[in-house]
Amino acid sequence: MVVDAPVDPRGPRFIASATAAVLVVALLTGWWPVLAAQALIFAASGFVSLGLNPWGRLYRLLVAPRLAPTAEREDAAPLRFAQGVGFAFALVGTVGYATGLTAVGVVATSFALVAALLNAAFNFCLGCEMYLLLRRFAPATVRQ
Amino acid sequence: MTGVWALLAVVVVVGAIGLLLRAREGRIRTAKPTGPALPGPVAALLHPAAPVTLVQLSTTFCTPCRQTRVLLADLAGRTGGLHHVDLDVTDLPEVAADLGVMRTPTTLALTSAGVEILRIGGVPKRDTLLAALRGYLPEEHPPATNG
């Protein structure tokens, strides 16, 4: 695991918008490879390094140079956690679509899309703020 | 086409959550008179000399926590009788559960005796928070600012 340096806060929002677009395509086509690709992106940025996220790279390469520079920085740990949560949903969705359990695929993809859209439209990171709630429902063994 | 319907449902849900969050962000909730006893790690943070201690609950995975920390530290620095501490509950989920806190940041305003005055979910609004705490803080004019 790489410890990521703090990031320009507008980057994650750009990532969320691009992720939402991918998830919309997955939802409309129901084609599992689209969701599988997004699951891979979630896994790489959540479990390895945020720097691996292709949308983040696109932001740094094409978008950031056109925006006014900002000294504001955001901690990478919450974003990594949220990408990990996204991975869980994308994985379940991919398996659902690929095995013909379309309902599972639709529901899991919809949940991931809700989180991505909340981030893109309202700058609200569901995975980050709900960490405590997730911990509360975690198995008792984890708590001890 | 289930995908289209799911997409429509998602848009509606996101809109509803977004509006709800916007309405609740920084809103002040006054505590019930007989709240539960304070968990030990929180009680230990109370400043004995300050009439009001703001205990901010944060996690490592929380983006607005940093913004809240900066805002409250600055506010406490400028306001007499107001003390601010940040408690990382990433590995203390039972503290958050005991307090009924489900999202971070949540900030509790406590008296030196540990009585909860109010709590704020999300990033607080400076002026509304100060106004709500006025009755608990010593009468004092804020330091004059130039201009």
Description:
The complex is a heterodimer of chains A (144) and B (147). In chain A, 73% of the residues lie in helices and 0% in strands. With 144 residues, chain A is mainly α. Chain A has one domain (10-143). In chain A, helix 1 (10-29) runs antiparallel to helix 2, helix 1 (10-29) crosses helix 3 and helix 4 runs antiparallel to helix 5. Mean pLDDT of chain A is 86; it is low at 139-144. Chain B is of the alpha+beta class. Chain B has one domain (28-136): Glutaredoxin, CATH 3.40.30. Chain B is built from 5 helices and 5 strands. Chain B has a 5-stranded mixed beta sheet with strand order 1-5-4-2-3, covered by helices on one side. The radius of gyration of chain B is 18 Å and the shape is elongated. The N and C termini of chain B lie far apart (62 Å). In chain B, 32% of the residues are buried. Chains A and B meet through helix 1, helix 4, helix 5, helix 6 and helix 7 of A and helix 1 and helix 4 of B.
Parts with pLDDT < 50 across at least 5 consecutive residues of chain A: 139-144
* Rg result of chain A: 15 Å
Quickly name the level 1 CATH class of chain B: Alpha Beta
Judging by the overall fold, what is the CATH architecture of chain B?
3-Layer(aba) Sandwich
Task: Supply the number of structural domains of chain B.
Answer: 1
Strand runs of chain A, count: 0
- What's the tally of helices of chain A? 8
CATH topology of chain B: Glutaredoxin
Regions with little confidence, pLDDT below 50 for 5+ residues of chain B: none
Largest sheet of chain A: none
How many structural domains can be distinguished in the coordinates of chain A? Answer: 1
Oligomerization state: heterodimer
